[in-house]
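In response to reviewer comment 3 from the previous cycle, which asked for concrete evidence that the modeling workflow produces usable outputs, we include below a single protein chain processed end to end. The sequence was submitted unchanged, and the resulting structure tokens are shown without manual editing.
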Amino acid sequence: MMLVQIANGLMEGMMLFLIASGLTLIFGVSRIVNFAHGSFYMLGAFLTYQLIPILTGLGDLNFFLAVLLAALMVAMIGMAFEVAILRRIYGGDELLQLIITVALVLIIRDAVRTIWGINDLTTPLPDSLSGAVEIAGQYFPMYLIVVFLVGMAVSAAMMAIIRYTRAGILLRAATDDRGMVALLGIDQARIFTGVFAVGCFLAGLAGGLAAPFGNINSLLDTTVIVTAFIVVVIGGLGNLRGALLSALAIGVLKAVGLLWFPRLSMVMIFVVMAVVLIFRSSGRAHA
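The workflow returned the following structure tokens.
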């Protein structure tokens, strides 16, 4: 039983990483705490739900194509928001940034309620992934394993891009010293827009992959953003590797806590965050 709980925790942690990775990338480069990140996650789930019946002819691949298209649409929406509004307030007052991102949360929530209503919606699992896999005498849901592998692939790709490509070098430079990047004649606005679009893509991807896990509704944004912020705070603001380790640790802690202390599982996570804040009140690093 413990092995199953730990495995489920790792898989849930990978989903948390997909959400938190975009959040920490956006903050690391633009210094904006994007409270609307959960809304982009919610949009990914609803768009996946909408696209699945539209896409036909590819069998179970329809689901993954719907998830990918939903994530791309979320990235385009995020890019438009960044260009039209956020670009005007970089370096501005933090309270103004907070007000604008919270306003976007309310706008997206009302749009979701207008388009899809207030009732819970369900997204079916692909038939080929609805079963379980036996490992060491224990059964693990096939879909959770696929999600874990997707998360590992995404994390490896992001870290490789940040470390070995020119885009990654520019991203790290913008994170460490934006003034120097500006003096070198590099267009910071394009970097900020690209990073925000990637962050929204990751949120939309996570939302699409999470859609079959349970009911989706217009409150999905608030249920995920709190945990995502905990991951980012524990892992270190702007630290991609820290976000990965933090997400996996929180996933395991939550799963084990549900087994041993069902009523205290979330409390344990907040206690860990409090301890981290006490002993490391600041500290930000890139991937």
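Confidence is low (pLDDT under 50) at residues 282-287. We consider this sufficient to address the reviewer's concern, and the full set will be provided in the supplementary archive.
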